[in-house]
Amino acid sequence: MKNILLGLFVITIFCFSKCKKNTPPETLPAATQEGKNTMGFKLNGKVWVPYFPCGFGQNPCGAIQLNYHLNSVPAYYLNFHPARKINGNLSSLIITSIPNTTISTIGNKFDSVNISFNDYATGITTYNKSYNPKGSFIITRVDFTNQIISGTLDCTLYNGTDSVIITDGRFDCKFYTCVCN
Which secondary-structure segment (H or E) carries 143? Predict the structure, then answer.
């Protein structure tokens, strides 16, 4: 009986863990509009792609979590949280609809979202768009039938006088996305 339980335990651990290289892709994903659940941008000129290992005890939505709530109050509320965890260093981008706004059409929605970037490598450093807000968050596709939302992102985020620059951002996700690598 002990051998059977030990065998089941080993099989369970093997099934829920993945042996993968602990690095994200080094190139940006293609700018698609097909609901491929992809996201990426350049952060201060370096490629940043969500990466969060799957496995036992890990967040199953660690790499990309996107919720586009159709029936919330207000309707068409966006909550988008891609994250990257490499060798214990975590960073994340958070994009949410500003309260009482809706995102239901294509176009530049920069004034309709809060954007922040968190870097946990040296403590918590948060950069956001509230200081000197300039940039774009363009929805290129919002498809209610196929439940796809796609777009681009370019902006500068600030933490006091320090800043991070996000360029060449693109995302292509289903309305309710949960991804780990």
Answer: strand 135-143
